[in-house]
């Protein structure tokens, strides 16, 4: 029985000693970090609008002739210059046709030479009175017919040569082969795509922007596009003409002075300026109160100015990023609040402060 009484008295004394220690701790001012509230009239919300990179020129190279693919001279990823041969069609039939046309040309030329010789002979005989005029007229008519046939043959030869030239598909400009659609031995028709060629010059970013942000974005003095966590200066090429029915955005085109890959995601960075009075404070100065409200600890000097005490204030978070929050509420300009370590303090506690430098949002 005495043993139990002893244990009970020991526990009571321990609790009393702890309360005394806690009370003395509350009476001794606690050293804390503080910051001074600087009033702001606005804040900025960083926004990004997504799009993709496109080549300034992108061409699907098709064949102008029917035929069988004889040779493929380039492949995907190859850089080519304007005029570089990319693909050849089989020209066996065209070469045979060309030889036939040359043979006809030689035949017509031989006939024309014979008629010219006979015509000269008849004109000589006519001068001596030994040839009839009708014979000369007949030779002249034959000569005109042969000349017409030769003109038609020359046009056919030119068409044949043009087909031979077009049997080789060439790059229309400097660029890179991004896709190949045919293989050696394929039989292709007119217009069949063979390669996709992307221009090597300036790339463009195509960004879809909601219509409500168009005015602010177009009035910016400069623009930046983020690609793979790197920012690139951009030049606006067009102000947008209509709203896309699927995405409900307006497409803007920006020129980029950088060797970027077509199809990469691009993000237009934009600072959305919002007019509202408030204060920037670090997230470490906030704590969650009852019913989901947010609170800060204001530092209130006592009338005797010998010490300061903490007072809990309710605030409304307007916007927050990874480090800071923009708030309004029961706080006042240039008032000091606890900057961090809120788990160490309670309302009504005496404190001494170390004023911390302001963050970049308050500068």
Automatic annotation (TrEMBL):
<dbReference type="Pfam" id="PF25917">
    <property type="entry name" value="BSH_RND"/>
</dbReference>
<dbReference type="InterPro" id="IPR058625">
    <property type="entry name" value="MdtA-like_BSH"/>
</dbReference>
<protein>
    <submittedName>
        <fullName>Efflux RND transporter periplasmic adaptor subunit</fullName>
    </submittedName>
</protein>
<dbReference type="InterPro" id="IPR006143">
    <property type="entry name" value="RND_pump_MFP"/>
</dbReference>
<comment type="similarity">
    <text>Belongs to the membrane fusion protein (MFP) (TC 8.A.1) family.</text>
</comment>
<feature type="domain" description="Multidrug resistance protein MdtA-like barrel-sandwich hybrid">
    <location>
        <begin position="59"/>
        <end position="198"/>
    </location>
</feature>
């Amino acid at each position: 029985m005495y043993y139990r009484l002893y244990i009970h008295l020991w526990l009571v004394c321990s609790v009393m000693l702890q309360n005394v220690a806690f009370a003395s701790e509350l009476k001794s001012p606690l050293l804390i970090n503080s910051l001074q509230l600087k009033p702001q009239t606005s804040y900025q919300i960083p926004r990004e609008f997504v799009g993709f990179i496109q080549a300034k020129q992108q061409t699907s190279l098709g064949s102008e002739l029917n035929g069988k693919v004889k040779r493929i001279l380039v492949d995907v990823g190859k850089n080519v210059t304007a005029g570089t041969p990319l693909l050849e069609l089989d020209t066996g039939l065209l070469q045979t046709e060309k030889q036939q046309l040359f043979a006809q040309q030689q035949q017509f030329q031989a006939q024309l030479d014979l008629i010219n010789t006979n015509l000269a002979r008849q004109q000589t005989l006519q001068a001596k009175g030994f040839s009839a005029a009708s014979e000369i007229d007949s030779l002249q008519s034959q000569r005109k017919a042969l000349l017409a046939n030769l003109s038609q043959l020359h046009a056919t030869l030119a068409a044949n040569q043009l087909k031979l030239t077009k049997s080789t598909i060439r790059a229309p400009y400097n660029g890179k082969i991004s896709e190949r659609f045919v293989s050696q031995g394929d039989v292709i028709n007119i217009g069949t795509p063979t390669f996709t060629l992307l221009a090597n010059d300036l790339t463009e970013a195509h960004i879809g922007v909601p219509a409500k942000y168009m005015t602010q974005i177009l009035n910016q003095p400069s623009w930046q596009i983020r690609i793979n966590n790197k920012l690139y200066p951009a030049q606006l090429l067009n102000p947008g003409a209509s709203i896309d029915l699927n995405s409900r955005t307006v497409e803007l085109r920006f020129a980029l002075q950088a060797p970027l890959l077509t199809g990469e995601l691009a993000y237009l960075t934009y600072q959305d300026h919002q007019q509202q009075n408030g204060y920037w404070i670090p997230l470490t100065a906030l704590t969650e109160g009852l019913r989901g409200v947010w609170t800060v600890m204001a530092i209130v000097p006592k009338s005797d100015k010998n010490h300061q005490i903490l007072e809990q204030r309710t605030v409304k978070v307007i916007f927050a990023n990874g480090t800071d929050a923009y708030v309004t509420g029961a706080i006042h300009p240039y008032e000091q609040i606890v900057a961090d370590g809120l788990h160490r303090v309670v309302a009504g506690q005496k404190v001494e402060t170390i004023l911390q430098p302001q963050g970049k949002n308050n500068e």
